[in-house]
Automatic annotation (TrEMBL):
Protein name: Adenylosuccinate synthetase
UniProt subunit comment: Homodimer.
Cofactor(s) named in the record: Mg(2+)
One record GO biological process: IMP metabolic process
EC number: 6.3.4.4
Domain of life: Bacteria
Gene name of the record: purA
Keywords tagged on the record: Cytoplasm, GTP-binding, Ligase, Magnesium, Metal-binding, Nucleotide-binding, Purine biosynthesis
Residues at which IMP binds: 216, 231
Length: 391
């Protein structure tokens, strides 16, 4: 593969981006995996043939293949969570995981103060909770939008970081650990990872094929999702294309053969009787329940259009025995960006096509793009390319 690939979820997340990135890194030469949105709340599962399993949060999903990770300026970096993830990777046999990661010094930092404020805000909503990963990523973005240069960043010198953390804790009205303890932890992080400037991504792109690994899904996008059940992140191809600086890349959309989401919000095709096996997705204390529904072609087409279109698709969970596809809503739903979009989705009812058996053909037809990668299980060996890969 001589070209770059951007991997984006065309649903509400959990479609299998991690396992697709793992396959890309296992089957071709990849210079690096670049994360371009979200933070430590990502959960990208990779399973090796020998049974080893890791849920990737900040490290890229090519790490078990020895492919380096770069956390771009669009990622919210959580150093304690990164250290915990590195420990697990080391136990799986990855030698010195920190040697495989670089971090843009302008990336925003998540702190215990953000996490405490975010959890407090979510609890205050009571029965109207929006769903949260409880890690403070939304609070990081909200604080940055309000306070700009005062927001803590990965490359801040200790004295600057201490001042910013005191200001942050006071502004959020939280307790949390002593500022000095946080500064010590973040200083240790700075000593372990290689901090780089924003020109580093351009040099990576020029040096070989790069896989850009997205987080969450387009239907949770801060602009295109269904407010308030959204993430504080741009989940389309936009950030990756900005990092590419005009260099071309294949736009790869990932879908399951059925549609899922964590927590509250629209899921038009939800069916409590649909209980596919989910070994890696469970109810979370902050996210809420993991919900399943039939393949929602209407929502996924909208996601592809909102993201500006896709070149190819990866279709996962082909081993799950499902056969219904939602092809329309009753009443039809306008996805116009106004204050009623979410309410319209919550009222919609699915119109189904029954007896779908050739999922590759059916999904390719309704999405208007070829299925490049067909996945029948969690490992790279359970995937195959159906059309020639990008060049």
């Amino acid at each position: 593969m001589s070209g770059h690939v951007i991997v984006v979820d065309l649903g509400y997340g959990d479609a299998g981006k991690g396992t697709v990135v793992d396959w890309l890194c296992a089957t071709r030469e990849v210079r690096a995996v670049v994360r371009f949105n979200g933070g430590a709340q990502a959960g990208h599962n990779v399973v090796l043939p020998d049974g080893r399993h890791h849920t990737f949060a900040q490290f890229g999903a090519g790490t078990l293949r020895g492919v380096p990770t770069h956390l771009s300026r669009f990622v919210v970096v959580d150093p304690p969570a990164l250290a915990a993830e590195a420990e697990h990777l080391a136990r799986l046999g990855v030698p010195d995981p920190f040697s495989l990661i670089t971090v843009d010094r302008d990336a925003l930092l998540a702190t215990p103060y953000h996490a405490e404020a975010g959890r407090r805000r979510e609890l205050a909503r009571g029965e109207e909770r929006h769903g949260s990963c409880g890690m403070g990523v939304g609070e990081v973005m909200a604080y940055w939008l309000e306070h700009g240069l005062s927001a803590p960043r990965a490359g801040d010198a200790p004295v600057v970081l201490a001042r910013k953390l005191r200001m942050l804790r006071e502004a959020l009205g939280v307790q949390g650990p002593p500022v000095e303890d946080c500064v010590a932890a973040y200083r240790a992080f700075q000593e372990r990872v290689r901090l780089v400037d924003s020109s580093f991504t351009g040099r990576l792109v020029a040096s070989g094929a790069v896989v850009f690994e997205g987080a969450q899904g387009v239907l949770l996008d801060e602009h295109w999702g269904f407010d308030p059940y959204t993430t504080w992140s741009t989940t389309t191809f936009d950030n990756a294309e900005e990092l590419l600086g005009g260099v071309g890349a294949v736009r790869l959309g990932v879908l399951r053969t059925y549609t899922t989401r964590h927590g509250p919000g629209p899921l038009v095709t939800e069916d409590p009787a649909l209980e596919p096996p989910e070994p890696h997705n469970v109810t979370g204390p902050w996210q809420g329940p993991f919900r399943s529904g039939h393949f929602d072609a209407v929502a996924h087409r909208y996601a592809a259009e909102a993201a500006g279109g896709v070149d190819v698709l990866a279709l996962t969970h082909l081993d799950v025995p499902v056969s219904r596809m939602c092809v329309a809503y009753d009443p039809p739903v306008s996805f116009a960006c106004d204050g009623e979009r979410t309410a319209r989705m919550m009222r919609a009812r699915p119109v189904y096509e029954e007896g779908v058996s050739d999922w590759v053909a059916a999904v390719s037809d309704v999405m208007g793009a070829p299925v490049w990668i067909a996945s029948h299980g969690p490992t790279a060996e359970s995937k195959r390319a159906l059309v020639p890969g990008p060049r």
